[in-house]
Amino acid sequence: MVILLIYHQLSIIMKYSFLDYVIGQWSALPLVETADLSGKTVLVVGANVGIGLEASKHFARMQPARLIIACRSEAKGKAALAEIEQETGYNGCELWIVDLAKFASVTAFADKFEKEGGDLHILVMNAAIALPIYQPTSDGWETVLVYLIFCARSYDSYLRFRLQVNYLATSLLSLLLIPQLVAAGRKSSTPSRMVIVSSGVLYWITPAEEVKTSSKPLKTLGSEDWCIPEHMRSRYPESKLLNLFFVRALTDRLQTITPLSAVAVTPGFCYSQLRRVWYEKPTFSFAKIALAIQERLLAWTPEQGSRQLVFGAVGGRDNEENMKGGFVSSHGRLVEVADFVLSDEGRKMQDTVWKETIDILRGVSDKIAPIVQDYLVVPDSSIN
Ligand SMILES: NC(=O)c1ccc[n+]([C@@H]2O[C@H](COP(=O)([O-])OP(=O)(O)OC[C@H]3O[C@@H](n4cnc5c(N)ncnc54)[C@H](OP(=O)(O)O)[C@@H]3O)[C@@H](O)[C@H]2O)c1
User: What is the pLDDT of residues 48-66, one digit of tens each?
Assistant: First the structure.
C-alpha cells in the first residue's frame, strides 16, 4: 500500500491523489438526500445489484409516481423488484428489460419509453461492466481493457471492458430520452436530471498522445491494434473520463433555458459485483489478494455509494446552475474536475469525442439527428 501510494504521489500530478482517495474512503459520508418525488418518474438503468439497486431503494422511499428499473436479466430484475418492494413497502416499481451490449435493445427500449414511459424526471445511467476476456459486441464495437491502479504490473490485472456498454450505449440511451426529460422539466418547477455514473479514477489519467490527437479517439481506443497491455493500463479511467466528457459536452450544447441538468457522479470505491470476474477466476493471483485487501480496508457498502447517485438526482436544487455539467464527488458534493478536463487539450478532445459519438450514434438510430437538431445548439467554443 505504501509503495503504491509513493508511486502515485511521485508519478502523477493530481488534484485527487491516492492519499486523498484513502482519506476520503475513511471519512464519514453525509446522510442520503431526500426529496418529494410524488408525481415524478424515475428511471434507473443497471438496477438489479450493487449501487444501482440501492439507489433505486432510496428513490422508492421517496414515493415517485413511477420507478422503472432497467435490467438486462429478467430473473435478476424480478428479484430486485421483490427486494425493493419488501424493503421499502413501495409497490409502484416496474421492470423493463434493456441490454446495453446491443444497440438494437437500447433503441427498442427508447421506442417503448416514447410510447409508454411518459415524461421522465430523473434518469440514472448506472450500468457498467468489466470482463476478463476479449469479446467484441454483436454491433462490432471493440472491447477495451480495464486497468486497476493498485496492481499495475500484474498481467492478471488486465480486464477487458466494454466500451459499448459503458460509453456508447449509455450515451445513446441518454440522448434518445432527452425529449421525455425536457418535456418533464417543462411541466415541473424543477429541471429534470440526467445522472451519468462515472468514477473518481478519471483524475488519475491523461489519455495517450495518439488518443488525444486522434480525429477519432473512440475508434483509436476501440481498435484491436491499440489494445496491447501497455496502452490498456489506463483504459478503465479513460472510459469513465468519456462519461464525464459526455456530460460536459451535452451541457455546453443545452441552452440554459432548457429544463434539463446533466450531472456526472462518482459513487466512491464500494463493494459490489463490478469486480465479480476477479473472484470468479479460479486461479490464485496477487492482484486478487490486493483487491480483497483494498476492499477490506477501504470499500463502502453499495448503499453508501448510492447516496452520491441520489444526490446527483435530487440534490443541489438550491444552485441548479452549478449542478449543470457538474461532477458529484464521493462525498455527495460538487468538486472541480481533473486538470486535464479543464485544459485546452482536454476541451479539444471533449469536442472531438462528442462529434465522433454523434456520428456513430446517428448511424445507430435515425432519431439522434432530429434530437440533436431540436434540442441542442453548437456552442461558441466548439471546434465543430
Ligand atoms: N463499485 C465501485 O467501487 C465503483 C467505483 C466507481 C464507479 N463505479 C460505477 O458505479 C456504477 C455501478 O457499479 P456497481 O459497482 O454497482 O457494479 P455492479 O454491482 O456490477 O452493477 C452493475 C449493474 O450494471 C448492469 N449491467 C451490466 N452490463 C449491462 C448491460 N449490458 N445491459 C444492462 N445492464 C448492464 C449489471 O447487471 P448484471 O447484474 O446483469 O450484470 C448491474 O445491474 C458503474 O457505472 C461503475 O463503473 C463503481
Answer: 999 999 999 999 999 999 9
